[in-house]
Design a protein that fits this description.
Length: 353
């Protein structure tokens, strides 16, 4: 374990180096640290300690004449052993509870407000991964004719999530026929999750040749096209331009463009975030720990949210590894708890209800 590798003097130097670099964004030198050190160490002694820390992989020196900056391992040590449970001031906790509570607009609006609050309170990119629609309960089905034998399918969950998809159908249907098909499917599958509806549909499609009713045949054909594809989880992002304005990205335009492209590929981004935030409780992924080249120099702080019974999705922030970990960890943790409480309070909004 890293904490057993270094003595108290080195711990203090490492903590101060990380803290100063997070605050200023500038490499930290021994003379600066000598003015802050509680043990009265000389710049020469501090230089030796920093050299040892560099040899152990906690710090590195960008240029021969520059001070030193933390590595991902240095940040990890700082996060794991040097910062305590800072917590948030009561005023901030109250502010979060006031902004993350049930309101008109259902779960989608709650997710949008949550991502905005995460970004506003941290200055990082705030993200919220919505619940998997496949496990959500169907509440409403609607069809719109786009062209002959081509329709827009709209599925609405009990939580207010909406997915749209275009389906090709074997017979051209007018508006009234489509409305009847939608009503039939809503009657048959209302209260089912999309996964449950698919399972029932598979059984009924096997019996389709025995169905005489034209309406039922068309409705089941549309349902087969509409329910077959697993919908991608929705992700809400807020604060991308703000993060790309950080010095790390302003100085490296190619890196900023690469990151922006990754954030725009929403389906891939959801896969990356879910992989990084596996496991229960608060998750902190620092730079190279993600094993994703596109997230080089990026840290994630995330947590899962639930409806009280079942985990629904994840929230969090992403930003430069040079971030204010202590406060940001407390913000993410508090918002995740508040979001879970808000969803549980309204009831019926989770996939199990």
């Amino acid at each position: 374990m890293d904490s057993a590798l270094i003595d108290s003097r080195s711990r203090e130097i490492l903590e101060q180096t990380v803290h100063l670099f997070i605050t200023t964004g500038e490499p930290v030198g021994s003379r600066t640290l000598s003015k802050l050190n509680s043990q009265g160490l000389s710049p020469a002694t501090i230089r030796n300690i920093m050299s040892d820390l560099e040899g152990m992989g906690f710090l590195y020196q960008p240029h021969a004449s520059a001070g030193r900056v933390p590595t991902d391992r240095g940040y990890r040590f700082y996060v794991g052993t040097l910062i305590g449970g800072q917590g948030l001031p009561p005023a901030d906790e109250h502010f979060i509870r006031e902004h993350i509570r049930p309101s008109d607009g259902g779960l989608p609006e709650l997710m949008r407000r949550t991502s905005r609050l995460l970004s506003n309170m941290t200055g990082m990119v705030g993200f919220v991964i919505g619940p998997d629609f496949s496990h959500s309960v169907l509440r409403h089905v609607d069809f719109v004719r786009l062209a002959p034998r081509r329709i827009l399918v709209m599925l609405v969950s009990s939580a207010g999530q909406v997915i749209h998809r275009v389906a090709e159908i074997p017979e051209d249907l007018g508006g009234e026929d489509l409305a009847q098909c939608a009503r039939y499917l809503e009657e048959q599958f209302n209260g089912f999750t999309l996964i449950e509806a698919r399972e029932v549909l598979l059984l009924r499609m096997k019996e389709l040749e025995l169905v005489v009713n034209r309406l039922v045949k068309n409705a089941l054909s549309i349902a087969e096209a509409a329910f077959s594809e697993r919908p991608a989880a929705e992700v809400h992002l807020e604060g991308t331009s703000r993060m790309l304005g950080e010095p790390e990205f302003v100085r490296n335009v190619d890196r900023a463009q690469q990151l922006f492209a990754t954030l725009e590929e929403r389906h891939r981004l959801v896969s990356i975030l879910n992989a990084c935030l596996e496991g229960a409780g608060l998750q902190i992924v620092i730079g190279s720990e993600a094993h994703v080249p596109d997230l080089e120099g990026i840290s994630l702080i995330g947590a899962r949210y639930s409806d009280g019974d079942k985990e629904l999705g994840a929230i969090g922030i992403m930003g430069p590894t040079r971030m204010e970990y202590a406060r940001h960890i407390s913000v993410v943790d508090c918002i995740a708890c508040s979001l879970s409480a808000a969803i549980t309070e309204v009831g019926g909004n989770g996939p199990n209800h």
